[in-house]
Specification:
By secondary structure, the protein is mainly alpha-helical. Helix content is 56%, strand content 9%.
Length: 86
C-alpha cells in the first residue's frame, strides 16, 4: 500500500450508484490503468502503485452496481474505443 493510501484511505462510495457514477467509474478505471515500470505496475495517471485509489474506487462502484468482471472489462474496452474516435 502506498503512503498516500495509508493517510487518505479509500475513496468513499456514493450512497447509491447512479448512471453518472457508473460513467465516472469507467473513466477512473480507464484513466488510472496499469503501466509496467521498472519498480512494478504503476498507475498510468498518478504513478501510484497499481491499483491506485481511483482505480479501486471505480472497480468498487461498478461491483456495487452489480456488474461482473466481464461486464466491467467490456465497458472499459468500449469507453477506450470511443475515446479514441473523439
Amino acid at each position: 500500500m502506498d503512503r498516500i493510501d495509508e493517510v487518505l484511505g479509500e475513496v468513499p462510495l456514493p450512497p447509491y450508484v447512479t448512471a453518472e457514477d457508473v460513467d465516472f467509474a469507467v473513466r477512473a478505471i480507464t484513466v488510472h490503468a496499469p503501466e509496467q515500470r521498472p519498480g512494478g505496475l504503476r498507475c498510468r495517471n498518478d504513478q501510484a502503485p497499481h491499483p491506485c485509489r481511483l482505480h479501486r474506487w471505480g472497480q468498487r462502484v461498478l461491483a456495487e452496481r452489480g456488474l461482473s468482471e466481464a461486464q466491467i472489462s467490456a465497458m472499459v474496452a468500449h469507453y477506450g474505443a470511443s475515446a479514441v474516435r473523439r
